């Protein structure tokens, strides 16, 4: 209370530390953020702006702009992500066709665009459009025949290899983070982890370009996962324009959650499904305000994409289907069978893919990523070309499999034997016996199924952008279509069986094989990703009717149950574990009976906890402690005897503050005493200047008692997004639990290797 | 460490307290639950069952049943709620028609059912079905004419009064909790509050019956809110069948969240919208597992309802519409205007309704609920009958307003002047000039609008079940249709204006007044409830197309912005505040700069905190403390000097444990010492038996430091669902913050009366 002039003077001298110290409040790469602190910083910021905005009109306008910046960012993300998705679609179309031939009118036209403008486009003549020339027609003037076939085959492989080589080289040289689907990393980032550059401009550019290349190269991968990554890069880009988002890691994650929704929205044209996907699968902290904004961004993106109109049908959705027949209760049985298949496929894929990725990581295989990509591309191209169902792009294949056979359908899959005196309307074609085309198609599809299953396991995880949705959907759609045609023919040829008698009389249109394909797709996608509600909603948006929600749900539920029986982890969680990221899954339930005291450090027998005392450590003591340990922070106590906790200081901020003080103020020397108290005591005149560091002290560190059950601790870490938590017993500091400790303990309890958690 | 025989003996004597004490772990009425404790109890339970299930096959099967019970409960809720909704719809149909006439073939047929069976049902003859007799036809053999009109008018009022009187009497006598919409209370219950009987069997029965009565009586109210309450009662009913849910308040709330989704799902036939409504508007704690189950329950309910088929069109949704025309950018202007109208209506409604409800509460008006209901019903019936748009049931009105005028439409609203040589297909009718019928309809609709706006304010909150969705939608739909017809006629008569020239040439079908009605409905519903995503999704499910999502969203966003500018509270939050429930809204942002120390009790100048010490208080001391204070719990400290916290004991459990010990064990007398320590010390032989109460002690009470910002404290209370939190400074106990303290502080900071928060 008694302030002498000298103390006043010295406290003035220390006041420069009350200016913001640069870099305090930022995080190191590969570290976890402190959600509570970020949110409280944002509130401070908001408070300042609100109070300022009453001062002048200019400040008021600035306040308004600030309040609207969230919507502006969403608008911009929607526009850019929608545009990029459109561009990617157009480029993929063109380059996929480039593998087969070229448009004489202009090389930049895809097959479809080339023949749009030609006059001969009645439906049947579409394939005979003269402006589109296969390579063999152009080079050796032969459209058919063995030599033309071999030439086309050869060029197909060559183009594929060229695209794949370009892609993997670009990724390696310019943006190593552009590989993979990106969803595991985005989940981790959204849960509060820092990976610098993962959502950077280079990643955005390279991922967009290489995504086009790899999809066009015909590899068994999709653009859906990467398009989430691309959208998140857009989100990061635009959030750096507004200090509200760029300077606050928690707020930035709100934008990124919305961007993830945008990614799915443009990939499938399903804005509601996208928002739910972000909510269910990707996001960690998702306030309701963000839900609304995500929805807005997803809609903007979907409409931007539609105005670019890459699918040429002015539909919003990727696979638009319309069925004309209801489904019957008896069909639930094959639907559930498809669900079982989806669950088994999901388990098989996750196990094999993780085993292969682990092998890639641990053996010398990982040293030759370019070679690996080239080899897999070559194998894919060589096997894919002879089979018409694997030669074309996977989206086209899925589209055909989903479609019901109308009267005008010319595809092999619709080669049914027609009743000649059929006078029914176009929409309502009765079940018919399969013609030879259908049987051929079945064999080819079965081969395609086996090929897709095997090659996808080796493709996902290579050093190129690769999504999983499309291959999974393709596997499911093929299996579903085969089952669907099987049931259809069974019902046609045995319509007097009891199960068919009620709903499948001759002349009735009772089985829709396309619906089976869609159900199979949902089952397989569900088995791999373990999505539930969002999966059904995406499928619901694709079909646009509540009518088929029960079959879809039956398959999705079955698939999830079957897959969960073999292991709870979806593919994304499995990859997160493989990479050792500190991801605390909201869905994991922790049910073991351990207490905080079992998890905290120091453990029994270990040296005591490194703590700082509030008023008797010198700068040198602290620097030594920092040098000798690698902890991310130190609890500050009243004294080593009483061990009464007063706060927590972050390592990074201690270092920065001490460095800053030493540089900017000569009085601070090695034996200056560091004070974390409010009012440093009066010092003898000849003692070195004290250093007051209360400013960087977190005065409200989170504490739990040693008797707290670990499930509560896990809950607290999850819900409040803590980095660490201190453990006390009757007011005495006992130890510390970090997020890494929690994750390692959880891994141990689940009989996994705790050392697999690598980051803080 | 040294155990003498005597201590062993005495500790054996104390062991009976280690048996579960009955009622420990339950809560008192009108109190808040402790989420963390409930969840940890559930984990314990789960752990026990899992470990037991390895013992025998029987236990394994029990474990499986346990695991499946969640799905079984959902199935049962879906079935019962769907059935009830179907029954309610059928009964309402019949009783609404009963006000106008009766079916000669059987009095239990509604007008529509009566005429279904008749042979003359071509469309135009539907109104002339001879089996359906108006009351005047039956009683004085006159269908038309002034005396018939007066008789019908009189009987209409009489029936309405009878229904309303029956309803209000039933509610008053049997189930006072059955009144109102129920959503405010359900929100509060889901946030962790106990209101015994609110979801009981009597409430379920009486609410179902009275809901039918009040809706049939023609009052301006809907069945959507109450149907959420009814579904939650079903949820409560079925959750009491399984000890997993009945004995754990947190698990029970998971079921109730799903039941809320079911309620909306059956009310609108919108399962996805229902789940999102529950997520966005009603629920508090909504784990993803529940999301999936809610979706399942909502689907089961929707399909149960569809198989009952109360709307007679085998459609799932309440108002099925299909438009054939796209919307144009220029139309966004009237859509946004409708949004503004919706926001203003929302604000007006909330303000007036709350003012009126407050007046009812504080003046003698509240003493005559029956009279009030009778008076409002009489006024409603007298004014409603002469206007054809208010006479019919509100759902029918909305349905007609939403519909586009097809070629076959015979309603007055579709009385356009036809071009005689029209050869266009049925679906594509160009804009036409309005006929006299449309102009009459406009006047009548304008009057209906004013009437609905005023009467709804006085209706909502009376002592009868009353929902808000349908009246809000009706207000919006009327306003929207009027605007729609206005725009249509403007465009028709001025198609050379610049804004119309591009999209509204003569002969084009450019304006769909039904779409305007739907947009207006979304705006008004949004203004009153402040729903966002779920609102748009419900509307999207009703229309079944993404096409109109932009108009709907534009209106919903505008309406929310306009309404939020006048006050952030939706109608449900306003009613929660009015009733003083302790509801900590997840959406409210707390941005003030207060600290835990400003909120905790004891405040400066107040007597110190009532604490228990761990080993030197007698039974009598504790009993005195319990008698003298009304706190819900007491912190337990090492000693009054050190104030080191060791745990927290609930008042209720202290009382039960002491009572139990006194009854069951003679050794425990008034001067027995209560020990909260692990090992009570050795006592002299003649001292009274000690009472060991460590069992009821919560050893992991939640603590924060006095420097913790209140926004963090609010966040912790919200996310972890705490009842109270202790405040410490460097390990010393300083005070306590309860949920009520937090809510009162928030009210104070928002310049509201803190005394309005009435419960703990």
TrEMBL record, chains A, B:
Got a GO cellular component term for this one?
Answer: synaptic vesicle
**Membrane-spanning intervals of the chain:** 68-88, 153-178, 255-279, 332-356, 368-385, 441-461, 468-487, 515-540
Against Pfam families, the record matches this protein to: CBS (PF00571), Voltage_CLC (PF00654)
Q: Which PROSITE patterns match?
A: CBS (PS51371)
How does the protein associate with the membrane?
Answer: Multi-pass membrane protein
The UniProt GO MF terms for this protein read: antiporter activity; ATP binding; voltage-gated chloride channel activity
Give the source's domain of life in one word: Eukaryota
> Mind listing the UniProt keywords for this protein, alphabetically?
Antiport, ATP-binding, CBS domain, Chloride, Endosome, Ion transport, Membrane, Nucleotide-binding, Repeat, Transmembrane, Transmembrane helix, Transport
Chief location:
membrane
Keyword Membrane in annotation: yes
As for subcellular location, the record says:
Endosome membrane; Membrane
**Which parts of the sequence belong to the CBS domain?**
600-667, 697-755
| Alphabetized InterPro entries for the sequence | CBS_dom, CBS_dom_sf, Cl-channel_core, Cl_channel-4, ClC
Asked whether the keyword Translocase is assigned, the reply is no
The UniProt entry's sequence similarity note says: Belongs to the chloride channel (TC 2.A.49) family.
Mind telling me what this protein is named? Answer: Chloride channel protein
Q: Which organism is it from?
A: Pyxicephalus adspersus
């Amino acid at each position: 209370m008694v302030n002498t002039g000298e103390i006043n003077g010295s406290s003035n001298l220390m006041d420069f530390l009350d200016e913001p110290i640069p870099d305090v409040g930022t995080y190191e790469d590969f570290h976890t953020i402190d959600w509570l602190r970020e949110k409280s910083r944002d509130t401070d910021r908001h408070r300042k702006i609100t109070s300022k905005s009453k001062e002048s009109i200019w400040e008021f306008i600035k306040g308004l702009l600030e309040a609207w910046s969230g919507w502006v960012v969403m608008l911009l993300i929607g526009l850019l992500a929608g545009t990029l998705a459109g561009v990617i679609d157009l480029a993929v179309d063109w380059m996929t066709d480039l593998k087969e031939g070229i448009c004489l009118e202009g090389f930049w036209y895809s097959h479809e665009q080339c023949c749009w403008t030609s006059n001969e486009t009645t439906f049947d003549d579409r394939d005979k459009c003269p402006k589109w020339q296969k390579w063999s027609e152009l080079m050796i003037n032969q459209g058919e025949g063995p030599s033309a076939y071999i030439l086309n085959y050869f060029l197909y492989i060559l183009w594929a290899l060229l695209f794949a080589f370009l892609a993997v080289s670009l990724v390696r040289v310019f943006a190593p983070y552009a590989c993979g689907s990106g969803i595991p990393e985005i989940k981790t980032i959204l849960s509060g982890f820092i990976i610098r550059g993962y959502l950077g401009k280079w990643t955005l550019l390279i991922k967009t370009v290489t995504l086009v290349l790899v999809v066009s190269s015909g590899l068994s991968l999709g653009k859906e996962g990467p398009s989430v990554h691309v959208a998140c890069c857009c989100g990061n880009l635009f959030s750096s324009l507004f200090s509200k988002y760029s300077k606050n890691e928690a707020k930035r994650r709100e934008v990124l959650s919305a961007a993830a929704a945008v990614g799915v929205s443009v990939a499938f044209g399903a804005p509601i499904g996208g928002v739910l996907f972000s909510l269910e699968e990707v996001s960690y902290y998702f306030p309701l305000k963000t839900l609304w904004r995500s929805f807005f961004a997803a809609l903007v993106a979907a409409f931007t994409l539609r105005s670019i109109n890459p699918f040429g049908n002015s539909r919003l959705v990727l696979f638009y289907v319309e069925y004309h027949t209801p489904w019957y209760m008896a069909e639930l049985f094959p639907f559930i069978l498809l669900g079982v298949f989806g669950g088994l496929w999901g388990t098989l894929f996750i196990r094999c893919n993780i085993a292969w990725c682990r092998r890639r990581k641990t053996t010398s295989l990982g040293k030759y990523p370019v070679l690996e990509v080239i080899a897999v591309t070559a194998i894919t191209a060589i096997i894919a070309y002879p089979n018409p169902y694997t030669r074309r792009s996977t989206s086209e294949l899925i589209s055909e499999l989903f479609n019901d056979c109308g009267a005008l359908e010319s595809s092999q899959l619709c080669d049914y034997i027609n009743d000649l005196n059929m006078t029914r309307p176009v929409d309502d074609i009765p079940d018919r016996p399969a013609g030879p085309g259908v049987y051929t198609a079945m064999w080819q599809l079965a081969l395609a199924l086996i090929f897709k299953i095997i090659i996808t396991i080796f493709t996902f995880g290579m050093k190129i952008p690769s999504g999983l949705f499309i291959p999974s959907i393709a596997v499911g759609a093929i299996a579903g279509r085969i089952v669907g045609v099987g049931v259809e023919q069974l019902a046609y040829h045995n319509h007097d069986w009891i199960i068919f008698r009620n709903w499948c009389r001759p002349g009735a249109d009772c089985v829709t094989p396309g619906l089976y394909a869609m159900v199979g797709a949902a089952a397989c996608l569900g088995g791999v990703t373990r999505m539930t509600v969002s999966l059904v909603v995406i499928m619901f948006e694709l079909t646009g009717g509540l009518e088929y929600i029960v079959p879809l749900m039956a398959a999705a539920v079955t698939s999830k149950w079957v897959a969960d029986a073999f292991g709870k982890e979806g593919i994304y969680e499995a990859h997160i574990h493989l990479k050792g990221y500190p991801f605390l899954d909201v869905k994991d339930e922790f049910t073991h009976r351990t207490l905080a005291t079992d998890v905290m450090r120091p453990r029994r027998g270990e040296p005591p906890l490194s703590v700082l005392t509030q008023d008797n450590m010198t700068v040198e003591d602290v620097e030594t402690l920092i040098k000798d340990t690698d902890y991310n922070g130190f609890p500050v106590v009243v004294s080593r005897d009483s061990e009464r906790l007063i706060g927590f200081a972050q390592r990074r901020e201690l270092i920065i503050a001490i460095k800053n003080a030493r540089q900017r103020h000569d009085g601070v020397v090695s034996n200056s005493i560091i004070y974390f108290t409010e009012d440093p005591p009066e010092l003898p005149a000849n003692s070195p200047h004290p250093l007051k560091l209360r400013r960087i002290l977190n005065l409200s560190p989170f504490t739990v008692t040693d008797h707290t059950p670990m499930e509560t601790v896990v809950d607290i870490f999850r819900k409040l997004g803590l980095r660490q938590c201190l453990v006390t017993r009757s007011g005495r500091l006992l130890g510390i639990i970090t997020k890494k400790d929690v994750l390692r303990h959880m891994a141990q309890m689940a009989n996994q290797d705790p050392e697999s958690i690598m980051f803080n």
